[in-house]
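Homework-ish question, so no full write-ups if that breaks the rules, but can someone show me the predicted structure for this set?
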Amino acid sequence: MLIYGKEVREATKEKVKRIAQNKPLSLAVVQVGDEAASGAYINGMKNFGQDIGIPVTVFNYPATISEAELIREIKKLNQSPQITGIMIQKPLPAHMRDDVVVNSLDYRKDVEGIHNFNLGKIINREAGVRPSTPKAVISMLKAHNVPLEGARVTILGRSSILGSPLALMLMAENATVTVCHTRTRNLIDEIRRADIVVAAMGQMNFVTADMVREDTVIIDAGINFDENGKMFGDVHAEAKQKAKMASAVPGGIGVITVAELFDNLTLLGE
Amino acid sequence: MLIYGKEVREATKEKVKRIAQNKPLSLAVVQVGDEAASGAYINGMKNFGQDIGIPVTVFNYPATISEAELIREIKKLNQSPQITGIMIQKPLPAHMRDDVVVNSLDYRKDVEGIHNFNLGKIINREAGVRPSTPKAVISMLKAHNVPLEGARVTILGRSSILGSPLALMLMAENATVTVCHTRTRNLIDEIRRADIVVAAMGQMNFVTADMVREDTVIIDAGINFDENGKMFGDVHAEAKQKAKMASAVPGGIGVITVAELFDNLTLLGE
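A: Not a homework solution, just the prediction itself:
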């Protein structure tokens, strides 16, 4: 059975909208250069903000701006009382270090939950913002009443924005979590023994029907494009059909992440 | 075969000693109250420092000091150019919040690697200090030439100072890591399938011989005391005898952690 993200997105949207009525929220998007793909993503954010009465302001800088100059601009936004959250659109130009730029944010305005200080809170199990994709994965599972306590979860991919924080967040939900990656031996065993598989390795249709059980729950967080520009996840359609439940691509995790980012906006400021 | 920590400790000690000859290092230990157990630990640190020419200064405050006052004192140490690293001895009195006190440290002086900003670096795979017990576990494994790449590791315990950061650190070493805890179902299966088991749940002799294979490598990071004050790990002696290799308690991981803390001291300052 395919599951979709739209209802989760709408529920979160309503929740954020209600909070925004009593709390002044305002999002700044830092964009360097003007890549088309990031423009589309930013438009999605602007529309989302408009729907719920939260101003989204794009600060666009030329692709030639130096790292030091960009950081000076970010520090101005850190200090602006009108702005309560800041997102830094990736990818940044190759002459910049992502970690240095991200950590120049005031962590209290880090709406993506990717500043080192906020990531550390995940290990320490402190409340706060969380990276939006792992947040979307957990919202999707909970919205579909998938039990997490004691569940055996296999995560495919160990990235700093998805696999690694998600592992910690699912542990905090009392799941038993295994993280797999390119060096994992017997990967198929690790997938087959899972109650829940989260695919996030960025390989089109990698997980096939023979790897999953009929009672497996699949979250497909992959975003891949074929030569015609059609979007595919990391899990093959036949595997999804066989499984008990599987998130669609497109229309699954991807449509929830923007809502989770705005949910983070409501949590910032401490 | 039992393995011990002494050689690892001595090797790290020599390494730190060499670095200290060219880099001014100085450790401050913040002690609140005067519990006997923490006094013994602090004496161990002082002796270690003395052996390698690194001054260790204890700043002792009465158990009645308020959280706000303690934080003011820590901020003075943050600013002191004579001090390059600060350790906050735990447990703190019950009227203090550990996380607030720890995060009042300048993260550049956080010799324990437990400030949120430094923990976040583990998720982001940035170089830097790491909590000393998981560091000791990895040093022990490497010193005994246990292959980590592709190894299936089961960690028992998900604490913020050991299980959780260790999971991320072993993933970075290309191990396939599963973290188990009180809510894990089929815990025995998870232990039996591991190439390496790290026991860190704080239950005396919990892991028994029937749970391990003859080719299992066991790291016992448990510290428990029986009614006579004798120290025991989390793994039963018979399990250790059966396994390919198992770290002793006492004399295993515990004797390495102080050395790892001093190793962190050499990494601070950026």
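Now go work out the reasoning yourself. Hint: Chain B has two domains: 23-111, 132-254.
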